[in-house]
Design brief:
- The chain contains 21 helices and 33 strands.
- By secondary structure, it is of the alpha+beta class.
- Strands 16-20-21-28-25-24-22-23 form an eight-stranded mixed β-sheet. A five-stranded mixed β-sheet has the order 2-1-5-3-4. Strands 6, 7, 8, 12 and 13 form a five-stranded antiparallel β-sheet that branches.
- α8 packs across α16 and α13 crosses α14.
- The N and C termini lie far apart (75 Å).
Length: 660
């Protein structure tokens, strides 16, 4: 019997049932066959050696294509080579799982002596040998009990447990590379030689088996791999830069904030850090006010009944801090809580509370759109192990806002928001913005007609703005499509920051209605939107993007007036008073230290400007201006330097307003 195979150009050919992708590509072109490492069969990446038993579409995956599929295959195969190398070097080590992750892969091992980075050179050398052997990746389907017997005989108890977890209706697949084999769903490339030598082990960490603290601790070795050594070198350089820019390290050097175990995931903002925080909040507040948003403030602690009504109690409760509504016991011997009080929760988001404000009084179609903003302090019960400096916290403040509008206003409100967002990002120094329109997922709420209308409204709005966008097929929220805004920082990393989500469900659940033009009651459409998102996370991102050298308008300390000799102390004090009166965040340094020591210290603190003064400057009314990151200095009249500094220190939105 034959099958019909359709090629990317639409051409069709008949082949004998059971023909492999390898046979098809070799019949087309020997040169193409040399480059091809896998295939997409009916859209699914598959082994090239897979027999084809039904009609379908084929597309060949070449190693030099630069596609995401190729990168994942290279990393998946490299993980298998890592596992083989470890077991060759340390027989008796158990291998568990080794998935591909963002920017690389990892493999978990059980070994009496945990691995360290000192083991990496030996492992990488052995991996290079295995790659050069060029052993073919071959797939076999084993009997379940036989697979358990084989792995059990090898002492691979974790593999036996994994086999037991495979559903009864699924095959037990084994992939071999030479004599070494592993339990794996695949797919893989043709051989280990297809991996190449552009791989690197990056770090080692402890990890619980299956993420459960009751289970054994494993050694997790992380690595990365790329198609070329040039791509690997660029990635390693980015990692090196990222380490230098780590906001946790820079935040400590600049004395911005700290964390401590008694308040997991909550920031202790120091004076300088809080200046930066306040400048960011003041900026976005001005932008929202100018864009027609009304600012509100809602409670942090609300009854569980409220969250049940909104739907969060059932779907989000594990991420909420739940608080009993009762007076704690004060007796030394008695319980602190009786367990009988009603339950309340710290709000993890602001949206249900904003609906309550919207619902006060009757709203008309003429009142819409209504743009409601809040710098709402929210709490989310993140796992301790997931916390990461400012990037992942338990207490956060969002530049949160909700737009209540009619369906015919979705497009215009989206346009309005996108233009505002791009202006804000431009002021923050981000020009590279990628927009993704996330469309209807496989499981969704509402009707297809409503989804189609919502997706069209968002797409039309984006086209009207003139900005390019990508379609993220099937990645919309359960209740509606959404827009995602991704920023690229100074070293090429991508951050998802801004969002705009359409919501028909919450207004219906909480009865957020307005009187339509025909006198009927209609549910408002709710647009959940954020530009900065969490202020904490955005500040962390800004610190890393600028390596702590913040734009002048955001710098906690904008200038330090430092003396060379004590005779200039009085002059320096007078300059600091004038600068502060002009709204400049100025500090005085009259310590009895050499000027080079002072310069180095304030450079570590990332102070953008120094006015250095000595006897001559005091006599002439001048300052020696030193700018962070540059050599040399420039002597100029103090008033000229101050005026230039005032202009540079003005926030970008205020500059634009003054120029208009």
């Amino acid at each position: 019997m034959s099958i019909k195979v359709t090629f990317p150009d639409g051409a069709q050919r008949d082949f004998t049932r059971g023909t492999t992708g390898t046979e098809i590509v070799e019949g087309i072109s020997k040169s193409l066959a040399k480059k091809t490492v896998a295939m997409r069969w009916n859209g699914v990446v598959s082994d090239l050696a897979e027999p084809l038993n039904e009609d379908g579409r084929i597309e060949f995956v070449t190693r030099d294509s630069g596609s995401k599929d190729v990168l994942e295959l290279i990393r998946h195969d490299t993980a298998h080579v890592l596992a083989e190398a470890v077991q060759e070097l340390w027989p008796g080590t158990q291998v568990t799982i080794g998935p591909v992750i963002d920017n690389g892969f990892y493999y978990d091992f059980k070994r009496e002596t945990p691995f360290s980075e000192e083991d990496f050179p030996a492992i990488e050398k052995k991996m290079a040998e295995i790659v050069e052997r060029g052993a073919a990746f071959t797939k076999e389907v084993w009997d379940r009990e036989e697979a358990k017997r084989v792995f059990g005989a090898k002492g691979e108890t974790f593999k036996v447990e994994l086999i037991d977890a495979i559903p009864a209706d699924q095959d037990v697949k084994i992939y071999k590379q030479g004599q070494w084999f592993d339990l794996c769903r695949g797919p893989h490339m043709r051989s280990t030689r297809d991996i190449g030598q552009a791989f690197k082990l990056t770090k080692v960490a402890g990890a619980y088996w299956r993420g459960d603290s009751k289970n054994p601790v494993l050694s997790r070795i992380y690595g990365t791999a790329f198609a070329t050594k040039e791509e690997l070198a660029a990635h390693l350089h980015m990692l090196e830069e990222a380490e230098k820019r780590d906001h946790r390290k820079i935040g400590q050097e600049m004395d911005l904030y700290h964390f401590q175990s008694e308040a997991q995931g909550s920031v202790f903002w120091h004076p300088k850090g809080y200046v930066l925080y306040n400048q960011m909040e003041a900026y976005i507040r001005r932008r929202l006010n100018a864009s027609g948003y009304q600012e509100v403030k809602t409670p942090q602690l609300m009854s569980s009944k409220f969250w049940e009504q909104s739907g969060h109690w059932g779907k989000y409760r594990e991420n909420m801090f739940v608080v009993p509504d009762e007076v704690p016991g004060t007796e030394d011997e008695g319980p602190v809580l009786s367990g009988e009080g009603d339950l309340m929760a710290l709000k993890p988001m602001n949206c249900p509370a904003h609906v309550q404000i919207f619902n006060q009084g009757i709203k008309s179609y003429r009142d819409l759109p209504l743009r409601m903003a809040e710098f709402g302090c929210c709490h989310r019960n993140e796992a301790h192990g997931a916390l990461h400096g400012l990037m992942r916290v338990r207490q956060m403040t969002q530049d949160d806002a909700h737009i209540f509008c009619r369906e015919d206003q979705i497009q215009s409100e989206t346009e309005h928001f996108v233009h505002l967002l791009y202006s804000v990002y431009g002021h923050m120094g981000f020009e590279n913005v990628v927009i993704k329109l996330a469309t209807r997922p496989e499981k969704f709420g509402g009707t297809i007609e409503r989804w189609d209308a919502a997706e069209k409204a968002l797409g039309d709005a984006l086209r009207a703005t003139g900005y390019d966008f990508e379609i993220a097929e099937g990645e919309g929220a359960f209740y509606a499509p959404k827009l995602e805004f991704h920023l690229k920082d100074a070293i090429g990393r991508s951050w998802q920051v801004g969002t705009l989500q359409l919501d028909y469900v919450l207004p219906e659940r909480l009865d957020a209605t307005y009187v339509a033009e025909d006198g009927s009651r209609k549910c408002a459409v709710m647009l959940h939107r954020a530009i900065l998102g969490s202020l904490e996370r955005f500040i962390g991102m800004m610190i890393e993007n600028y390596a702590g050298k913040m734009p002048m308008w955001l710098a906690p300390t904008q200038v330090v007036v430092a003396t060379i000799v004590s005779e200039a102390d009085e002059y320096a004090q007078r300059l600091v008073r004038q600068l502060r009166d002009a709204g400049i965040r100025a500090e005085l340094d009259t310590r009895n230290e050499k000027i080079n020591y002072k310069v180095r210290e304030h450079s570590v603190g990332k102070v953008p400007l120094m006015f250095v003064v000595g006897r001559r400057e005091a006599e002439e009314g001048t300052v020696s201006v030193r700018r962070l990151g540059t050599e040399g200095q420039k002597v100029e009249p103090f008033m000229d330097a101050m005026v230039a500094l005032m202009a540079e220190a003005t926030a970008p939105d205020l500059k634009a307003k003054a120029a208009a």
